Structures are given as structure tokens and as C-alpha cells.
Amino acid sequence: AMLAKMVATLDQLSGGRLDVGVGAGWNEAEFLANGYDFPPPGERLAMLEETVGVLAAMLGAGGRPASYTGRYHRAEDAPASPAPVQRPRPPLWVGGTGDRLLGVVARVADGWNLCWEITPQAYDDRLRVLGEACARAGRRPEDVRRSLGLLTLVGRDADDLVARWRRLQAWMPGGALDRVELADWAASRLVGTPDQLVEQLRGWQARGVEQLVCGFAGIPFSVYDDEQLELVAELVLPRLEA
């Protein structure tokens, strides 16, 4: 319920531009450091599903009191007021890859996110599992929005790509990529020349991915070279827009 209030406020502040992403959690040390138990996966997934239920009930009530009763979470006549700008409410995205997680997506989520590395073939397998879960939930798979996060590396040409890969290897903490071959790393990430990136992005679009989040380094939420963003902006995005 507290999260729903925060979401409504942020949607107001952003003028209705907020997407809400939630997950079951995976880092036990993070849970324990904040004073939370770390239950087994099935229980965390059940708690996640109920969390989405609370958010959907409160955010979709237009500022009026809403209630939800589950095994782990409940809200009783709880308003999210002022209401969010978006109607019926901000979209609720669930992130993860496992079969049971995709069941949660099929039952309660507006969208599904996966990151930061996956091959197209492995993604196709996850789409198959999602489709089966949607069938059990009485829902069309195409009604589940899809976003994907991929670590990204772009070079002006093949030689430039190799040079930038070498710089990324040198930048990575602890030499984590020292013994990794570029071709192996690229197979499950967004890597290549501008032509190759456009081809890959169109392949993801054909799989129903509407939004791709780029991570411009060897680890998430980092940028090892600002020029990477400039290359994508100058050499890739205009071709996609065309």
C-alpha cells in the first residue's frame, strides 16, 4: 500500500510517464541487510503476485479507497490519493525469466521485462513458456507488453568494434572479461556495427519487444565510454525511426 502511494505521487510528478517494474528479488544478502527474511522462491513469487494485486487495486481506483486481501499482503479501504495521472493506472511490469515467474506475468502483469543478456533462441523458449502460461490464464500472449535490457557495445566498423572491446576489457573491474572472446560475449547481448545493431533490433521487434534498454558497459547501470551513447544516437536511432 505504501508503494502504491509512492507510485501515484511519482506518476503525478512525471506527468503520467511512469512505468512500474517489480520483481521477486534474488540477492539474499540485500534482504538480510535490510532486516527482511529471504523466503524460498515459491513464496517470494506468491508475495510478488499479491504485491501486483495491491498495486492494481489501489492505483486503478481513481483515488477512491480500495481493498485487497491475500495470504501475505492486504489493504483495507486504502486510497492512493491524489490518483495517478495515467488511466486506468500506470502499467505494472514484472521482471524475471523462470517458468513460475512467467506464470505470474501471465496472470497479473501488464508487461514483462528480461535483462541483461539472452540469445534470441533462448528468448524464443521463454516466449513459448509465456504463451503456455497465458493460455492457462485465459489471456492472449500478445497482450503482454515486452521490454528487454541488453548490455550494449557498438563500433563504427568491425575494426573499431574490436578496439572498443579491448577498452571495455581493460575497464572491467577485476579483469572479469580478460579471458572472454568478443564473439562469445556478443552472442547474448546487443553488440556490433551500426548495421548489425539495426538488424538485431529489428529481430527483437519482430519478437514483440517494444522497448530495449541498453546498458553501455560490461555490468548493468554503468557507462564505460560516453561515446557509445553518441554512436547509437547518431548511427542507429535515425535508421530505426526511418
Write the layout of secondary structure elements.
Blueprint: H1 2-13, E1 20-22, H2 28-33, H3 41-59, E2 66-69, E3 74-78, E4 92-95, H4 99-108, E5 111-116, H5 120-137, E6 145-154, H6 158-171, H7 182-186, E7 190-192, H8 194-206, E8 209-215, H9 227-241
Parallel strand pairs: 1-4, 4-5, 5-6, 6-7, 6-8
Antiparallel strand pairs: 2-3
Order of helices and strands: HEHHEEEHEHEHHEHEH
Average predicted local confidence, pLDDT: 96
In the predicted model, the low-confidence regions spanning at least 5 consecutive residues are none
Strand share of the residues? 15-25%
Bulk shape: globular
Q: Give the end-to-end Cα distance, rounded to a whole number of Å.
A: 43 Å
Described by strand count, sense and barrel closure, the largest sheet is: 6 strands, parallel
Structural class: alpha/beta
Rg result = 20 Å
Helix proportion: 40-55%
SS summary, helix count:
9
For the secondary structure, the number of strands is 8
